[in-house]
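Note to self: the last two entries modelled the partners one at a time, which told us nothing about the interface. This time every component goes in together.
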Amino acid sequence: MAHASLALQAALKQVSAEMDRQFDLLLAVPGDPRKGLYEAMRHAAIGGGKRLRPLLVSATAQLFGVDRTCIARTALALECIHVYSLIHDDLPAMDDDDMRRGKPTVHKAFDEATAILAGDCLHALAFEVIADEKTHPDPFVRIELSGTLAVAAGPAGMAGGQMMDLEAEKSSFDLATVTRLQAMKTGALISCAVESGAILGRVPIEGRTGLRGYARDVGLAFQIADDILDAEGDEALVGKKLQKDGEAGKETFLSLLGLERAREQARMLVDQAIEHLKPYGTEADLLRDIARYTLERDR
Amino acid sequence: MAHASLALQAALKQVSAEMDRQFDLLLAVPGDPRKGLYEAMRHAAIGGGKRLRPLLVSATAQLFGVDRTCIARTALALECIHVYSLIHDDLPAMDDDDMRRGKPTVHKAFDEATAILAGDCLHALAFEVIADEKTHPDPFVRIELSGTLAVAAGPAGMAGGQMMDLEAEKSSFDLATVTRLQAMKTGALISCAVESGAILGRVPIEGRTGLRGYARDVGLAFQIADDILDAEGDEALVGKKLQKDGEAGKETFLSLLGLERAREQARMLVDQAIEHLKPYGTEADLLRDIARYTLERDR
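The predicted structure of the combined assembly is written out below.
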């Protein structure tokens, strides 16, 4: 948590503990042949990760005084989708990664079939969590959350972006295509986190423009920082294999812009993200801290 | 469609055409690097399959005079889940099947990464379709459909059943465990189809007992018939590799009961399913025909 403000450090710690607690409840291991499936989900979901998306749900919803249980359960649903995507992306047929968050990936610690099913189960559980009235008493809020999450996870969002990322190894994408790819692959779920906070806060569509701009810019800055970490980071700190993009011959923000321009672009995006929060006072300081932190993180 | 009544034949034909039409609209191929992903989804989703789950949604909802668009879109969502599960179940790490519905499986026609993502996308699209107000104007109906589908797809339903099925190759399950496995693996989504028809029809929970009994019995009868087809069916008609359970040393209804008792059990379940429909008049004849057809089908 290098360079995170004290307030952000406290918030990250609180959200991480809450997510671990929520996953522990959601993924209680049954005493039947599905034991390995649940253990695999727990392995991937508990005790690790930056919990950036849950933090964004929480920091946004707090602007509007949303109930803590509603926040925690919505954040849990988003993190279910994020964790499922990591499990599937790590599979041998996809990015073929052995380490994630400093631990063996699910298909390494268990097996491929269990990893595929653990991802599928977390995917379904996200929508089960959202649909439960414990997440929000108003069915209209729940179905809006559910639809927003489904679009962000599907072919127009995260999964579509992953498909483009696989194609990136075979083609030579330009900056516009890489930007679109990343806006889908990581940006869609980051935007969905902020949007979910606004939905919980019952912000009407026309009142979400600033928050949407914030989310888009933070998502891109986060990805540029990720590209820089992939090239220059410390594998022990990041907890996964690095320098994979270069080896795969994939165009990234870094390869297309060079290190200096990529850093500059990310700083510009962070400033722009913070500018989008102008209508908000100190209650949005956590969102501002998150924007700055996307560049300063070392994992 | 051997032995299907004329009314059932007409309904199957109508539902199949409607599902192909819905998938064609849902899966319009974009002119970008996701082209292969959409083609893979279309390969799996269009022009094949018995469309049993959409038919059950439709036949149940018709009891209550539900609007045709609501029925078609809800049926589409269920079939998205069913098709995604077939794509993932066929993967080399899972059941490792080369043929499905008389065509190469998705990972054979495309590649494994595309198959994983095509399944993931159909999974998300199911919840996107349900959340859209075109599916039903009342958000309460949509969120109930969504939650019911998520539970049926997840670790307590279809995906949990598939995990138990993989374990079945390593263990020697008794009849109670095989029954539970199948009630989850195929039964959960079949039950969800009937339940969705009742939700669209605004049938309160206490009014669904008969329909739930019907769905449970039809689901089990269907699975016993599937086991018998696996042992005795014609590969050309069924369109996939057969006799896999025996080779894998898996216990099934057939291995545990023997052919004669398995047939008898399935007939008993069909009679019982029809008995559950006693409160309904001729308007439930299609549901009765579906129950009988589960045993008589040759594919």
